[in-house]
Amino acid sequence: MSMNDQIIEALQAQFGEEGVYGIGESHGILQVTTAVENIVPMIHFLYAHPVFKFQFLTDLAGIHFPEAKGQELGVIYHLHSLENNVRLWIKAYAPIEAPTFPTITGLFATANWMEREAFDFYGILFEGHPNLTRILNMDEMDYHPMRKEYPLEDATRHDKIDELFGR
C-alpha cells in the first residue's frame, strides 16, 4: 500500500468518508477536499501523526471560482512531510458572502504572511489571526484584486490592434 493510500485511509478513519472527499492525485501529490471546520483538526492530526509527520507548510493559497455557487472562495494548504518526502494538498471552500476560515498560525508561524496574502488578494478572512491586515496592497483599497470579478483588459482602450492579440 502506497503512502498516499495510507494517508487517505487514516484521514477517512479519523474524519469519516464525508469529511474527506474530492480525493485525487497529480504528479504523485495527494489532493483531498474537506469542510472548513475540519481544517485545523485535520492539519493537527497530520502534524502529530507518528508516521506521516506533515510538519512543514510549503504554501497556503487562496482561490476563486465564481461559477461554483456557495463555494466561490477556497484555500489550498500545501503540506510536506520532510521525513517521508511526501506532499499533500488540502482544499476547503466557503461562500463568497462568508469567506471565513480558521487560522493555522498557532501551528505554523509561516502561515501568518500566507494568510495575510490570501486576505489581501481574495478577501478570505482567517478567524483568530493575530494581525489580519493587507500585506502587499494599499490599506485604502476597497476590493481584492485577484478575484475574477474584474475584466482582464481595459475595454475603454482603443490603442490595441486586435489582430496582434489573436482576436
Automatic annotation (TrEMBL):
Catalytic activity: a quinone + NADH + 5 H(+)(in) = a quinol + NAD(+) + 4 H(+)(out)
Subcellular locations according to the entry: Cell membrane
EC number: 7.1.1.-
Domain NADH:ubiquinone oxidoreductase 30kDa subunit: 33-154
Location (main, coarse): membrane
Keywords: Cell membrane, Membrane, NAD, Quinone, Translocase, Transport
GO MF term list: NADH dehydrogenase (quinone) (non-electrogenic) activity; NADH dehydrogenase (ubiquinone) activity; quinone binding
Enzyme superclass (EC): translocase
UniProt keyword annotation of Acetylation present: no
Membrane topology: Peripheral membrane protein
GO CC term (a single one): plasma membrane
Domain of life: Bacteria
One Pfam assignment: Complex1_30kDa
Function: NDH-1 shuttles electrons from NADH, via FMN and iron-sulfur (Fe-S) centers, to quinones in the respiratory chain. The immediate electron acceptor for the enzyme in this species is believed to be a menaquinone. Couples the redox reaction to proton translocation (for every two electrons transferred, four hydrogen ions are translocated across the cytoplasmic membrane), and thus conserves the redox energy in a proton gradient.
Binding partners and assembly: NDH-1 is composed of 14 different subunits. Subunits NuoB, C, D, E, F, and G constitute the peripheral sector of the complex.
Entries under PANTHER family matching the protein: NADH DEHYDROGENASE [UBIQUINONE] IRON-SULFUR PROTEIN 3, MITOCHONDRIAL, NADH DEHYDROGENASE UBIQUINONE IRON-SULFUR PROTEIN 3
Similarity annotation: Belongs to the complex I 30 kDa subunit family.
Name under which the protein is recorded: NADH-quinone oxidoreductase subunit C
Organism from which the protein derives: Aquirufa antheringensis
Gene name per UniProt: nuoC
